Automatic annotation (TrEMBL):
Similarity comment: family membership: Belongs to the UDP-glucose/GDP-mannose dehydrogenase family.
Matches recorded under Pfam families: UDPG_MGDP_dh, UDPG_MGDP_dh_C, UDPG_MGDP_dh_N
Lineage summary: Eukaryota, Fungi, Dikarya, Ascomycota, Pezizomycotina
Keywords for the protein's UniProt record, in alphabetical order: NAD, Oxidoreductase
Functional pathway: Nucleotide-sugar biosynthesis; UDP-alpha-D-glucuronate biosynthesis; UDP-alpha-D-glucuronate from UDP-alpha-D-glucose: step 1/1
One term under GO cellular component: nucleus
Reaction it catalyzes: UDP-alpha-D-glucose + 2 NAD(+) + H2O = UDP-alpha-D-glucuronate + 2 NADH + 3 H(+)
GO molecular function: NAD binding; UDP-glucose 6-dehydrogenase activity
Protein name listed in UniProt: UDP-glucose 6-dehydrogenase
GO terms classed as biological process: glycosaminoglycan biosynthetic process
Species this protein is from: Recurvomyces mirabilis
Domain of life of the source: Eukaryota
NCBIfam families on file: NDP-sugDHase
PANTHER family assigned to the protein according to its UniProt record, in alphabetical order: UDP-GLUCOSE 6-DEHYDROGENASE, UDP-GLUCOSE DEHYDROGENASE/UDP-MANNAC DEHYDROGENASE
């Protein structure tokens, strides 16, 4: 069969960019062009400041995007980024659709159904401009039946009836923060297709692209419905584990059981396994919530109300976890946050990504601000304008400027704070600098995991001059001293054993 020579990927986001960079690296003979409507995003992909942070991504992109010299040989670049969508479509044999599929905000299914407007727009563009046969591989996470719908769109829009479109489902299973590792060594590649000869051949041609580095036995070919549902099912079952352990952590707190001990004991059961069993303030990220809600909507559409209710509770428990987390902080500070500074370390929804979509930090910070706290935020990878945009999108903007400050280092964020809340499990919060100092004044039992630390007074509680921070005003990186902090006569740290680990 004809090998694929040219790939176009529509959507240069968290999925399209890293996936195509790895495909290009592993297939030097295939020309890979990633296109997007967003000029700024494309410019960033062409620069040294990639639009997303992902460990290992820069090396992979540079390897395939820039000309490489070794001895007398050169490796010409085969990874390109462009906003010229039409040209990339025309010259491609294989087109990935990797555009966003957020939850619908208005109309039928608002609040749970997936918004397929971007997928449909991309498909229409392919149908309108194509002049030769194409394999269209749907990579966005979509409801079951989308491949079927796309076939209708192609049949009705295609100008040139001689052009054949083979629609495949090829969902992406990478997780942000480990995207390159996941792409280089995937648990499986899933390809859904129809069962006629042409469709199966298209699936094989796509499989050949992955077979450049993925063992054949890990490339699964199934029907389109199974492929689409498997992606949703995987995310729903992962989200379900996090909501399960979070609901158990609530029971632990009232019974005296330790949620980490429970997670370890349960996780060592090989039938269950240890992953995704860290209690947290709730899962975040762009996928879990929207994908669970998408499954809820599918179940509702088929009148499977009990099934819909079951999955909806996974999201409900997640909202409850975030609310319970903020409540803990408020209660630990004597039920008032008025004029108190709370340091928030970490804004991304999990470590090793700058992505803040659905981050629990946005919700928790909003609840603290509503209690009149001043929130001081530090995150190593999230830009200040993103933090402001997250807060203004989700919360009342009145007087936000006075209630939020964004810091370039954790030390100034913590200075004078009544509490330090670690909301992203960045390694630097576990091992380096200030967090070590924080860790030294905390219960040793919880040193290795992100946690919320709320310093609590042991002397009479009052405002004014005695409202000293456990982080000294003159505290500097070089002179930090755990002993000084530990010996403070005013505060005794209280730890809240809620550990954070998201998707
Ligand atoms: P994203 O928002 O980061 O990127 C999507 C990109 O598509 C945007 O840059 C947008 O400008 C572009 N786009 C939208 N419509 C377009 C069009 N008609 N033409 C050209 N460009 C267009 O989204 P993402 O995180 O990469 O996710 C993409 C899909 O993959 C979603 O369905 C998501 O659920 C799924 N997914 C995401 C992850 C993840 O970890 N982020 C993992 C697996 C699957």
């Amino acid at each position: 069969r004809e090998p694929v020579r040219s790939i176009c990927c529509i959507g240069a986001g968290y999925v399209g960019g890293p996936t195509c960079a790895v495909i290009a690296c592993q297939n030097p003979k295939i020309q890979v062009t990633v296109v997007d409507l967003d000029q700024a995003r494309i410019d960033a992909w062409k620069s040294d400041h990639l639009p997303i942070f992902e460990p290992g991504l820069r090396d992979v992109v540079q390897f395939a995007r820039d000309e490489q010299y070794s001895g007398h040989e050169t490796r010409p670049p085969n990874l390109f980024f462009s906003t010229d969508i039409d040209s990339a479509i025309v010259s491609a044999d294989l087109i990935f659709i990797a555009v966003n599929t957020p939850t619908k905000l208005v109309g039928q299914g608002a609040g749970s159904a997936s918004d397929l407007a971007y997928v449909e727009a991309a498909a229409r563009r392919i149908a309108e401009v194509s002049t030769s046969d194409k394999i269209v591989a749907q990579k966005s996470t979509v409801p079951c039946g989308t491949a079927h719908t796309l076939r209708h769109i192609f049949a009705s829009v295609a100008q040139n009836s001689d052009v054949n479109f083979e629609i495949l489902s090829n969902p992406e299973f990478l997780a942000e923060g480990t995207a390159i590792r996941d792409l280089l060594s995937p648990d499986r590649i899933l390809i859904g297709s129809n069962t006629d000869r042409r469709a199966l051949q298209a699936a094989e041609r796509l499989a050949d692209v992955y077979a450049a580095w993925v063992p054949r036995e890990r490339i699964l070919t199934v029907n389109c419905w199974s492929s689409e549902l498997s992606k949703l099912a995987a995310n729903c079952m992962l989200a379900q584990r996090i909501s399960s352990i979070n609901s158990l952590s609530a029971i632990c707190e009232v019974t005296g059981a330790d949620v980490d001990e429970v997670a370890q004991a349960v996780g060592q059961d090989t039938r269950i396994g240890s992953k995704m069993l860290k209690a947290s303030a709730g899962f975040g990220g762009s996928c879990f919530k929207k994908d669970v809600l998408c499954l809820v909507y599918i179940a509702e559409s088929y009148n499977l109300h009990e099934v819909a209710l079951y999955w909806r509770r996974i999201v409900d428990i997640n909202e409850y976890s975030k609310a319970r987390f903020a409540k803990w902080i408020i209660q630990s500070l004597h039920n008032t946050l008025d004029r108190k500074k709370i340091a928030i370390l970490g804004w991304a929804y999990k470590k090793d990504t700058g992505d803040t979509r659905e981050s629990a930090a946005i919700n928790v910070a909003g609840q603290l601000i509503a209690e009149n706290a001043h929130v001081a935020v530090y995150d190593p990878e999230v830009r200040p304008d993103q933090i402001i945009s997250d807060l203004t999108q989700h919360h009342n903007t009145d007087a936000l400027a006075k209630k939020v400050s964004i810091h370039k280092n954790p030390y100034s964020a913590c200075e004078g704070a009544s509490a330090v809340v670690i909301l992203t499990e960045w390694d630097e919060f576990k091992t380096d600098g200030l967090p070590s100092a924080v860790a030294n004044v905390l219960d040793k039992e919880v040193l290795e995991v992100p946690l919320v630390s709320v310093p609590r007074r042991t002397s009479e509680d009052s405002r004014g001059s005695s409202e000293r921070s456990w982080v000294r005003d003159d505290y500097s990186r070089d002179e930090r001293s755990a002993e000084n902090l530990a010996e403070s006569p005013v505060f005794e740290p209280k730890t809240i054993p809620l550990r954070l680990c998201k998707k």
